[in-house]
Amino acid sequence: MTTIRRFCCDDLLRFTSVNLDHLTETFNMSFYMTYLARWPDYFHAAVSPAGRVMGYIMGKVEGQGESWHGHVTAVSVASEFRRQKLAKKLMNLLEEISDKMDKAYFVDLFVRASNMPAIRMYEKLGYVVYRRVLRYYSGEEDGLDMRKALSQDVEKKSIIPLKRPITPDELEYD
């Protein structure tokens, strides 16, 4: 039986196999530690009965006013554990924390425009493409900013798509 629990420091030494996928964005250790310290409620691991990290989600809450939102920085599942709905469970957990605990208006994420399996999964989870970010990934590949409205956004304003693509320097960061 898989357990989903908060990510802990020891997991940083045990989750390398999850990041082996070429589509998974990897970060340096201090980046993971910052998320673990600042947004522990948004960092979870799916763990096997033997204690192996099968997947994880890392996110944060940011913005102001109607732009207050949960953000999925990374969600990844090791290849041998895919097709078990682990990513869906991890995404649902982050959405619930964003909605119920932090009263966010929406959850957003960025995905490579070429990563069709991930895009289809996010669409099944209720996400829509809000905008295209030109050359978002290493200045080469476009990214899609996908969003899902939460209960605070009664009129669903946060998911009305932009009519034109933007560049990374037009993104708002908090």
TrEMBL record:
MF GO annotations: protein-N-terminal amino-acid acetyltransferase activity
Family: Belongs to the acetyltransferase family. ARD1 subfamily.
A Pfam family that the UniProt record links to this protein: Acetyltransf_1
Protein name, per record: N-acetyltransferase domain-containing protein
This protein's GO CC annotations: NatB complex
Transmembrane segments: none
UniProt keyword Transferase present: yes
N-acetyltransferase domain span: 2-151
Keyword field: Acyltransferase, Transferase
